[in-house]
Design a protein that fits this description.
The chain crosses the membrane at residues 73-92, 98-117, 138-158, 200-220. This protein is an all-alpha fold and 224 residues long. The protein contains eight helices and no strands. The protein has a domain at 76-219. 69% of the residues lie in helices and 0% in strands.
Length: 224
């Protein structure tokens, strides 16, 4: 069931896992390539933690309005928890690999969510100002989480492979490097000595490019 979860169960409100992608099987009749894409989307959706978080919140909604509110609270609280986790990782200087893998997962899953809900899936019908404003805020928070997340990965995972401007590098330096790479695709002021760092920086550029593509796709008017 797609089409905005069949208009949220015919506008009875969202249901747990109501946003689940359709099975790839029907798409085989249309195109093998489309079926492959749907299979990948189906897999990634089921690996996305926020979908289970949303389902848990929606299950507590007693009526239509309550379920819509629960879904919004779930999305907002998940965003807040992501930022809190990143802040704590930076604050305590966690250099363990699990921290970098966790942040990488959150960056990737956020990008997938925006791709799924704003490109692959049928768009919602709500065009209210409040909806657009909230959508913009969550987009910006997700985008800059990616920038801050890449800075964490670079600083706490590959600090010694980067030539920093000062003698005592800080996370702020890594954040400036991440911003520079994201918006100019250049890190000339921060020479690197490890190919792994170059791959991470290239991944960040692709992350930014993907977000820009999503913006462009959503700005192009569609014909009904």
């Amino acid at each position: 069931m797609t089409a905005s979860a069949q208009t949220d169960q015919e506008d009875g409100g969202p249901v747990p896992f109501g946003d689940r992608p359709e099975s790839p099987a029907p798409y085989l009749k249309l195109s093998p390539l489309l079926a492959l894409g749907q299979s990948l989307v189906w897999l990634l959706w089921h690996l996305s933690l926020i979908e289970y978080w949303k389902a848990a919140w929606i299950a507590f909604g007693r009526d239509r309005a309550g379920r819509y509110l629960a879904r919004s609270v779930a999305i907002d609280s998940f965003m807040g928890l992501k930022w809190l986790a990143l802040i704590l990782l930076v604050w305590f200087g966690v250099e363990a690999q699990w921290g970098r893998w966790g942040v990488s997962y959150l960056i990737g899953s956020a990008l997938f969510s925006y791709f799924y809900y704003h490109v692959w899936r049928a768009p919602p019908k709500s065009d209210s100002h409040a909806f657009q404003l909230r959508r913009t805020m969550t987009f910006l928070l997700s985008f800059f989480f990616g920038i801050a997340g890449y800075a964490y990965i670079l600083f706490f995972g590959y600090r010694d492979a980067i030539t920093w401007p000062g003698s005592t590098p800080t996370y702020t330096d890594a954040l400036l490097m991440s911003l520079s790479n994201a918006f100019t695709a250049s890190f000339a002021d921060f020479p690197v000595t490890d190919d792994a760092v170059r791959r991470i920086l290239a991944g960040e550029v692709l992350f930014v490019f993907a977000f820009l593509v999503i913006i462009v796709v959503n700005s192009v008017p569609s014909r009904n």
